[in-house]
Amino acid sequence: MQAFMPRIEITLSKIQHNARMLSELYGQKGISLMGVSKAVLGDPFVAEAMILGGVKFIADSRLENIQRMKNAGISTQFVLLRTALSQAESIVENVDISLNTEIEAIESFLIMPICIIKFIK
Questions:
Q1: Distances (CA, A) of 67 to 5, 7, 59
Q2: CATH (domain of 77)
Q3: Average pLDDT over residues 102-118
Q4: Assigned domain for 56 exists
Q5: What is the pTM of this model?
């Protein structure tokens, strides 16, 4: 009996094409796209395909995935979708935008000397 593992088949040209179509559609309305690399563990090739398609931001829920893309030479604005308080200093050093809903996370960033906080109402 052969066990089958789940897998994702990725066609980078299709990701780039879809990103381009959405970027053109929403760009006409002044909206920039954010591609999420969570499902592919921050794969740099997928991130690059999204960027070549016109995506302006790459988001992930794990700092390690963002660091993987940066180490691979991906140059864009990175968004962290969740914040682990234990990684606050590393987040400030590696991420352009961090989305936070917990007051404890926001307070931890307030003590960071190089952090700029923008509150959105």
A1: 27, 23, 12
A2: 3.20.20.10
A3: 64
A4: yes
A5: 0.78
